[in-house]
Amino acid sequence: MRQILICLALLLPACFMAKAQKSKQPNIIIIYTDDLGYGDLGCYGNPTISTPHLDKMASLGMKFTQFNIAANVCTPSRAALLTGCYPKRVGLHKGVLRGTSTIGLNQDETTLAEILKNTGYHTACFGKWHLGHQEQFLPNKHGFDEFWGFPFSNDMSKKEQALMGNNKYPYSLPLIAQADTIELDPDQSVVTRQLTDKTIAYIKKNKKKPFFIYLAYPMPHIPLYASKAFKGKSRRGLYGDAVEELDWGVGQIWSALKSNKLDKNTLVLFTSDNGPWSIYKTEGGSSGPLRGAKGTSWEGGHRVPLIAHWPGGIEKGAVCSEFVSNMDILPTITKLVDGELPKEKIDGRDISVLFHSPAYKLKDKPFYYYSKKGRLKGIRLGVLKLILVKDDYQLYNVEKDISEAYNLANKQPKDVERLKSIMFQFDQELDNEMRIAGTVKE
Question: What is the model's pLDDT at position 24?
Answer without folding.
Answer: 78
